[in-house]
Amino acid sequence: MGGEDRVLVQRRQDPCQRGLSRVTNASVPLAAAAPIGVFDSGVGGLSVLRHIRAQLPHEHLLYFADSGFAPYGDKPESVVAERSLAVAGFLIANGAKALVVACNTATVAAIKVLRAHYPDMPIVGVEPGLKPAAAATRNGKVGVLATSVTIAGAKFLLLRDQISAATGAQFLLQGCPGLVDRIELGDLGSPAIGALLERYAVPLLDQGADTLVLGCTHYPFVLASLGEVIARTTAREIVLIDTGDAVARQLGRLLAAAGLLHAGDGAAGTPATPAVQGFTSASAAALSGAFANLLGIDAPVREVVI
């Protein structure tokens, strides 16, 4: 697939202002200079965006924080899949050449249907890092911190069973209700977050886990608090697995294979569009603050209805 290839996307008039309700099929060219669309139920996907910016510095990025519909983790898979299709359609209508589903829950619920809808488009999902965790564990016990929807998903459970059978690793699953909500509030070192992390991580450590998988893209933003909980609980060395780096590498491979890697605008050139553009279904001020506080960047943000 080269820059001249075309895919069918869902488009409606003025999607930035009014979202996607009535849609029609339209043919949109994919070009290397087009942006990558990244979405999550909130600000957690910024942990993935951080890795994409580091590894693919010439790429322009669209980030959609669906905070008005968050959290995804307490909703049925069918609802998350429908919502993911709507958000993906919005990003594609705004020119995205590729999609990153920067949410474990949405990946479990929607990655297959997204790829079925857009078979010619590079689409990367986020999955809990069970395989690298199985390689990293020394005693064979791996704790998985994730949303309840993620750990109950058939795709996730199949992956767990396959890796467990191949490696002998034992995966201890822990749903974390309420943790995403607290992280979305932005006070990452709050006592409330510390209490939730203690409630969810300590039982895994008590069962002997020497490796913990951060099975939600929100969780890397509370590594400091999690480290404090681990230090209070055990003197053992605990390995933490964050898959954002692997997602960025896979995205780079897919773009290169499709001839869609952006080579840059030239030393003297300036991008025609902002390097990062944010959209949110909730508060623009909140997402702007998250860009500044979590990534240290000042990105334009628009509130939209989808």
Automatic annotation (TrEMBL):
- Mind telling me which Pfam families this protein's record contains? Asp_Glu_race (PF01177)
Q: GO terms for molecular function, please?
A: glutamate racemase activity
Q: What is this protein called?
A: Glutamate racemase
Per its UniProt entry, what is the enzyme's top EC class, as one word? Answer: isomerase
Gene3D superfamilies listed in its UniProt record? 3.40.50.1860
What PANTHER family does its record include?
A: GLUTAMATE RACEMASE
Q: Which family does it belong to?
A: Belongs to the aspartate/glutamate racemases family.
Q: Which residues bind substrate?
A: D40, S41, Y72, G73, N104, T105, T217, H218
Highest taxon above the source species = Bacteria
Q: Which GO terms describe its biological process?
A: cell wall organization; peptidoglycan biosynthetic process; regulation of cell shape
